[in-house]
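Task: sequence design from structure.
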């Protein structure tokens, strides 16, 4: 099954994608993680993407479409995958229609106030992509999966977050209608408990 996770920054896409991928044994394709690794490795793509990401804007469509196109050709995608953070614009969604057949789009719905609270406490592992919240870490500073030090993302700091929410509402939110019109949208309330949300998503995907 080829799945898209759609939702604003902080909605829990990464958290839930990681868990659902483990449960279904399919890869999580997080464009944000791929871009952050490209920046850390100082690749040409990373150098191109950095200024956009630091400002809380979107990386240009052509750059991100090329990355995803290449990634979806890898053998591990043959049995299905979750796209986490792509598409984020209508042109990206249109390009995706020429590359892959999507079965379901899971929209995680969370109010802006709650998103800001989640994002400001987020800590991530750049190595394995695991996501944590500072309120649940009990002082731990390393990744429970792989032992790498956890960091706060540069773009999770306050000024940038507002720009990211703005770009979600203006550029990404139209994808809700785009996929609704194609009969693929499944809306999940992303405000509750992580385990309950996980169970709700799994149930929808298995329906
Ligand atoms: P979040 O999990 O907070 O929604 P991501 O880790 O998915 O954020 O993305 C971080 C940043 O990477 C975005 O703010 C954007 O600059 C860039 N990015 C990721 N995916 C895309 C995409 N599909 N199109 C354009 N930019 C992207
Ligand atoms: P996204 O990938 O959509 O940007 P993340 O999965 O990175 O979102 O989650 C953002 C932050 O919110 C992280 O700190 C994460 O631990 C926390 N979080 C995720 N889901 C929940 C939830 N259901 N309840 C409370 N906090 C959550
Ligand atoms: Zn890790």
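Answer:
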């Amino acid at each position: 099954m080829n799945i898209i996770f759609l939702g604003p920054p902080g909605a829990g896409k990464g958290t839930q994608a990681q868990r659902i991928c483990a449960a279904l044994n399919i890869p999580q394709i997080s464009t944000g993680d791929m871009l952050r690794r490209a920046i850390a490795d100082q690749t040409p793509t990373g150098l191109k993407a950095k200024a956009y990401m630091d400002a809380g804007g979107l990386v240009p469509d052509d750059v991100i479409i090329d990355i995803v196109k290449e990634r979806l050709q890898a053998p591990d995608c043959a049995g299905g995958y979750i796209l986490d953070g792509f598409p984020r614009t209508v042109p990206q969604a249109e390009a995706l229609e020429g590359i892959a057949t999507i079965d379901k789009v899971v929209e995680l719905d969370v109010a802006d106030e709650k998103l800001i609270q989640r994002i400001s406490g987020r800590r991530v592992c750049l190595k394995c992509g695991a996501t944590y919240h500072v309120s649940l870490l009990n002082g731990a500073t390393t990744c429970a999966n792989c032992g790498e030090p956890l960091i706060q993302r540069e773009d999770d700091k306050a000024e940038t977050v507002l720009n990211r929410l703005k770009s979600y509402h203006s550029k990404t939110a139209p994808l809700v209608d785009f996929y609704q019109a194609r009969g693929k949208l499944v809306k999940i309330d992303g405000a509750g408990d992580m385990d309950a949300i996980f169970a709700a998503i799994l149930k929808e995907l298995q329906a």
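The domain at 2-111+172-206 is CATH 3.40.50.300 (Rossmann fold).
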